[in-house]
Amino acid sequence: MQELVLSQPVSTVRSELVREAARADAQREFEERLAECGPLAYRVARSVLRNTADAEDVAQEALLRAYKGFERLRDRTHFRGWLVRISFRLALDKLRSGKRREQRDTLWSQPAHLPPPLTAEDVVASNQFQNHLERALDGLPEKFRLVLLLSAMEGYTVEEIAAMIGVPLGTVKSRIFLARKKLAEKLRCHANTIKRR
């Protein structure tokens, strides 16, 4: 009796090998880019969240999303900006969900007719200013906050920021100018309130 042997066509085997090689190349390129700018995901998340543990969680999630979507990234030279946007948006989402949870918990735990009790930290002027600064930063529109964080806190140049977020150089300059102006106005109002006391 003759045994029937089925084999894959040579073209199928070749295309499978080509796909495996392409995946290996993409994996190697991702690892190289990750080594170059992986810590940036944490720094962006930390600058938004101001909490190490949450920033680490967001950075891991951002790197995981970048890994999953790396093959779909058309221009891989924009990996750094892409990773910054992923990290920034995830950090904002985490911040918003935390604020909603905190607000909900506060509403349930405090009687409606009594203001929350003041603590010693609330009385100290430096802490008040820090809290006001954080609120002022949070009050800026997302596009202004991102360029301000990247320029003032991360030290990137205007050109680097423009390349990272994919907007023209003039747009980045005007956003930084407007962000600083809005922040200064908010801080000036706080300083006037303190002087009147």
Description of the structure:
- By secondary structure, the protein is an all-alpha fold.
- The chain has two domains: 20-110, Orthogonal Bundle (Rna Polymerase Sigma Factor, Chain: A); 124-197, Winged helix-like DNA-binding domain superfamily/Winged helix DNA-binding domain (Arc Repressor Mutant, subunit A, Orthogonal Bundle).
- The protein is 79% helix and 0% strand.
- The chain is built from eight helices and no strands.
Mean pLDDT: 80
Number of strands: 0
Secondary-structure content class: mainly alpha
Binned, the helix content reads over 70%
Topology summary:
Elements: H1 10-49, H2 52-69, H3 79-109, H4 120-123, H5 125-139, H6 142-153, H7 158-165, H8 169-196
Which features does this protein show?
single chain; 197 residues; Rna Polymerase Sigma Factor, Chain: A; mainly alpha; 8 helices; 79% helix; 2 domains; Arc Repressor Mutant, subunit A
Short overview:
The chain is mainly alpha-helical and 197 residues long.
